[in-house]
Amino acid sequence: MTVAESRSTEVTGKRDPADLALAPTLPNAVAHSEEELDEHILRFPIPDRIEHIITIVSFTVLATTGLPQMYSTWPPMQAAIGAMGGIETIRIVHRVAASVLILASIWHIAVMGYKIYVKRVRMTMLPGWDDVVHAVQALGYNFRITRNPPRMGKFNFMEKAEYWALVWGTGVMMVTGYMLWNPIATTRLLPGSIIPVARMAHGLEAVLAVLSILTWHMYHVHLKRFNKSMFTGYISREEMEEEHQLELELHDEGKARPMARNKENKRRRARIYVPIAGAITALLFVATFYFLTFEQTAITTVPPSSDASISVPLTPTPPQVQ
Question: Which terminus of the chain is less hemmed in, N or C, by CB atoms within 10 Å?
Fold first, then answer.
């Protein structure tokens, strides 16, 4: 297809039948109908969508069971604790969700390493100076200082900021969560005052994460325009033209998903990466299990005072002398 024909395709939204017949042999092409080829572009494959769903579920459970513990003296939170089965129940559920998030994070790191080292995919989520420029341009466009919005790639500066905030927040929650889960082991290495500090950092990071989801993420992904690509895998051409113009150009040129062309080199890298990454991932999984079962101090709660036995001295108190 010539450049003129390509531009005509973008304007009319139609393609020549001969182009559709050749579509399965072209880079990045999928055997779809004419309308699907023109209007829907693959953005997230199935494994990415599964990771996203696991993150949604674990994060929601962690927020729902964690915030009531952080503000347990507030009557509405006490009612929420009672509705969820009591403090013992939500503490166990909270730790199960935390374990899922930890394992999912380990798996995500292993998968990203495979994509980058073996498949040679583009590292489109890394922030760069272009993102700073795009943020300034977007600010100017929103205030009507400039006439045109920024032209951005597969992930714009807002999506990158949210992703790396998730990475940072998850790291903070893991470290402080370990301290709260294993306080005795922690205080063998650090002063005892680190435990209340960890509790405060854990709770405030949770509040920040929830507020970020309810404001930033909710607006940009669900209210401004309901972006279904993380659930369906596909994004519309209209959305690409609005927020990912540079990526759309690469897609139309067949360069959006460049990977290693030499299959032998790819297999060689896989033979190196898979055993090493598999061993490290398995080791981290075992370490996580050890971390989960190392102490019981943060799980077992002290029984209420009304259920505790009262100590009565065997020797009666002698009468006081007047």
Answer: C
Whole-angstrom Cα distance, residue 188 to residue 197? 16
Domain range list for the chain = 79-121+264-302, 156-224
Q: How far apart are CA 209 and CA 56, in angstroms?
A: 12
| 111, two tokens | 């998968």
- In terms of Cα–Cα distance, which of 6, 8, 13, 5 is closest to 34? 13
d(CA 276, CA 269): 11
How far, in Å, CA of 53 to CA of 223, rounded?
19
Alpha helices in 84-213 (DSSP H): 87-113, 129-142, 157-181, 183-189, 194-212
Signed CA dihedral, 100, 101, 106, 108: sign only: positive
Global pTM value = 0.76
The total number of residues written for the chain in this structure: 322
Instruction: State the average pLDDT over residues 133-143.
Output: 93
Burial 222-260 (b: 16+ CB within 10 A, else e): eeeeebebbeebbbbbebbeebbebbbebbbeeebeeee
Nearest to 122 by CA among 166, 162, 155, 167: 155
Residue 168 and residue 138 in contact, taking contact as beta carbons nearer than 8 Å: no
Sign of CA dihedral 236, 228, 255, 248: positive
Ranking 57-61, 179-183, 210-214, 260-264 by mean pLDDT, the lowest is 260-264
CB atoms within 10 A of CB 3: 8
- Residue 298: name the closest of 206, 218, 150, 180 by CA: 180
Across-strand partners of 235?
41
- Name the residue type at position 84: M
